[in-house]
Task: structure prediction
Amino acid sequence: MKLDRKALDRLLSMNDEQLKGVIESLAAESGLDLRSFGITEDNIASIRKALTGATDEDIKKASEQLEEFNKRERKRS
Result:
């Protein structure tokens, strides 16, 4: 997933169930099992608040981190 302002806006336009599904899917693709965390409505509200307040610099940094993580994972495989 390419992370940019447009992608962030698409995430923010989703309802809570859709956003939760995307988060769980992205986590699973990264090898993380979020079932033990039990994502709740409060978690989704906090995530939505953080995404809403993300600056362009935050998005750039997160995108770079995601890209680096993906490169490391590809090397492991």
